[in-house]
Every structure is written in structure tokens, then in C-alpha cells.
Design brief:
Layout: H1 9-15, E1 50-60, E2 64-68, E3 73-89, E4 100-107, E5 113-121, E6 131-134, E7 144-151, E8 167-173, E9 176-182, E10 188-194, E11 203-210, E12 216-223
Parallel strand pairs: 3-12, 5-9, 5-10
Antiparallel strand pairs: 1-2, 1-11, 2-3, 3-10, 4-5, 4-7, 6-7, 7-8, 8-9, 11-12
Length: about 230
């Protein structure tokens, strides 16, 4: 199976979901998931200061980034050094002990969660969207789930993540954990730092912080593809 690295905005929004939307930019930020069981475990200090702004870059300089969202135009102060991240192909063998990952799963008839795609975050992005959130639901109570957390290899049923027989991962996050069955052919992407620079027209997710004066600032952005 060939991974699709041009994720939809909805997929990436859930993948890097902020624990809370920042006032003033929430309508252009990542949507709140239908399953918010992990939100209570989020650090209280981050509740009103962090968000994800999603949209198209209209202009960018060394100091200011302007993003056109679905509903408005958002100006973000650029904090240097500003780092851009992008997705590239990975392998199951790249999932190491304590790797921070996002795993998309679908519930099986026996109740198990089966991985359909795994995303490995750069260490600098550890903690983004931590928890387990429903992406879609169907009338049977199933659907796709996104779980972001740290893999504990000590709790894998098979310690060789590259095994042709696949593995069972336990993905841990504050307040809980999710056991996931991982077939050997599960597509894997790595979200890594890149030397690419942002340009007008780029679709991005920008991790912003809100200052006491209401201004937004950011030192990281993820290219979402086109």
C-alpha cells in the first residue's frame, strides 16, 4: 500500500489538534473532536494560550505571517528561529521506544482498534494533540479514531516493530492509553523539520500562542500539502 501524504485538512487538524482553541482565531483553528475524554488531562496552563491556525499563506516575511482561514485573515508574529515541518515516507522500523506518534485506527468487530496509518512526530512536536479523538463515526458506533501519544515498546506484544507479522502497540497519553493492532504493511509518515520556507499559497497549520495583548505568535508551522 502506498501512503497518501497529501492529507485532508480534517485529517491533519485532528492529527495536530490543540487542547483548546484560542479566542479570536478558533474558527480558523483545528476543530474540537467529538470525543473529548482526554481534554481534562491537558495542562491547565496551556488551555487559553495555544491553538492551531489553519489556512493558506497570503504573505510571509521574517517577522510576520498572514494566513487566510475559512472565515478571516489572521496575522501571526514570527518568532525566530522559525521552523517548517513536512511529511515524508517512513517505516514501521522508525517507530522507536517512546516515539511520539499519531495513529489512525478503525474499530474491528471484536472491539480492537486496527491501525490504518501511523504518523511519527519530530521530537520538537511532542505533545501535539495528545489524547484519543474520534475523527468520524458511523451508526454502528465505529469509525476512525486518531490517537496521539508515546509508544511503549515494553508493552508491545512483539518487540520487533519491523516484524512481518505486525505488532500490537500501546500508545500512552495523559489520562489513558490505547492498544492498537498494527499490521506489517501499515503506511507510515514522518513529520520532520525541513529546509523549505513558506510561500504565498502554501496550505499550513501554524501552532500559535496568544499573548496577554491578544497578539498571536508562532515559531513552528506544518505544511499541509495542496
Amino acid at each position: 500500500m502506498v501512503p497518501n501524504f497529501h492529507h485532508t485538512p480534517r485529517q491533519l487538524a485532528v492529527l495536530i489538534l490543540a487542547t483548546a482553541a484560542t479566542a479570536g482565531c478558533s474558527r480558523g483553528s483545528a476543530p474540537v473532536p467529538s470525543d473529548t475524554t482526554s481534554a481534562q488531562a491537558a495542562p491547565a496552563a496551556a488551555a487559553d494560550t495555544s491553538a492551531i491556525v489553519r489556512g493558506a499563506v497570503t504573505s510571509v516575511s521574517a517577522t510576520v505571517l498572514v494566513i487566510k482561514t475559512d472565515t478571516s485573515t489572521v496575522t501571526v508574529n514570527v518568532v525566530q528561529p522559525f521552523q517548517v515541518y513536512a511529511s515524508e515516507p517512513g517505516r514501521l522500523a522508525d517507530v522507536k521506544d517512546n516515539s511520539f506518534i499519531g495513529v489512525t485506527t478503525v474499530k474491528q468487530p471484536d472491539g480492537a482498534e486496527k491501525a490504518t496509518e501511523i504518523h511519527i512526530f519530530a521530537e520538537a512536536l511532542r505533545g501535539l494533540g495528545e489524547g484519543s479523538h474520534m475523527m468520524t463515526e458511523d451508526t454502528s458506533g465505529g469509525g476512525h479514531r486518531m490517537t496521539n501519544g508515546a509508544v511503549s515498546t515494553s508493552r508491545m506484544s512483539n518487540g520487533n516493530v519491523a516484524s512481518t507479522n505486525g505488532s500490537t502497540y500501546v500508545v500512552q497519553y495523559p489520562g489513558g492509553s490505547q492498544q492498537v493492532t498494527v499490521p506489517a504493511n501499515t503506511p507510515v509518515t514522518e513529520i520532520k523539520a525541513t529546509t523549505k520556507t513558506l510561500a504565498a499559497g502554501d496550505q499550513v497549520f501554524v501552532m500559535v500562542k496568544k499573548g496577554a495583548d491578544g497578539s498571536l505568535s508562532a515559531s513552528k508551522a506544518l505544511l499541509a500539502g495542496k
